[in-house]
Amino acid sequence: MVEEQHAGTGRRRLWWPAALAAAVALGLGVPALVAGGPEASGSVASAPAQESSEAGFARDMATHHQQAIDLSFIVRDRTQDTEVRNLAFDIINTQANQRGMMMGWLDQWGLTQHSGTKPMAWMKMDHQYEPHDGSLMPGMATNTELAKLRSLSGQEAEVYYLQLMIEHHKGGVEMAQGYVDLGTNPVEKRLAQTMVNGQRGEIDLITMLLDKRGAKPLS
């Protein structure tokens, strides 16, 4: 897993936003998730099932987010460009906080953080994507691509990071929109819609940053 491969400095510096988000989720977000809608009776017993869309989205998006965080830590250490470093910092903080919330929800629901189910099976559609070389879901970089990014520096690293992040965001938007369309929990749906809006906006920004560097998206 990418999360296991990228330990060290990035992991140490990541703990505080993720821990804070988990605390917020446990203190505020989870009671609303459990008791805040018609699908819940107000007790932990009414929490989502192990293989529900709610649990599947939380698990898969948390994994997807972790790689965006990893990519951003990599480029942060390989360029001094203010624009790219600011983008990486924003992605690290936003996605670490969102990931902490989703992990907190799973914990409160009494569900595992990992499942043997194929990624994105909860979307109830025939996904043709086959996990390969560490890329578990659409948009996720492969281990080979991560290694290439680590080998670059300066503008070359900036361009490759931006290209990988556009693909990553496209996959993230697809998954988040899938939960907006399928999900039943209003709190989780609001978070998913926030992801859709935020990552679409970042795709526009990243495309502009690539254009400034005379480069284009990978697809």
Supply database-style keywords:
elongated, 219 residues, mainly alpha, disordered N terminus
Describe this structure in words.
Helix content is 68%, strand content 0%. The protein has seven helices and no strands. Helix 2 crosses helix 4, helix 3 runs antiparallel to helix 4 and helix 6 runs antiparallel to helix 7. It starts with a helix and ends in a 7-residue tail after the last helix. The N terminus is likely disordered.
Q: Brief description of this entry?
A:
The protein is mostly helical and 219 residues long.
Spell out the blueprint of helices and strands.
Layout: H1 2-5, H2 9-35, H3 53-76, H4 82-109, H5 143-151, H6 154-182, H7 186-212
Helix pairs in contact: 2-4, 3-4, 3-6, 5-6, 6-7
Helix content: 55-70%
Termini gap: 25 Å
Which series of helices and strands comes N to C?
Answer: HHHHHHH
Average pLDDT metric: 84
The count of helical stretches stands at 7
Tell me the fraction of residues in β-strands, as a range: under 5%
- Which stretches are low in confidence, meaning pLDDT under 50 for 5 or more residues running? 1-32, 34-45
Structural class call reads mainly alpha
Report the strand count.
Answer: 0
Which shape, going by the Cα principal axes?
Answer: elongated
Biggest sheet overview: none
Tell me the radius of gyration.
17 Å
Oligomeric state of this protein: single chain
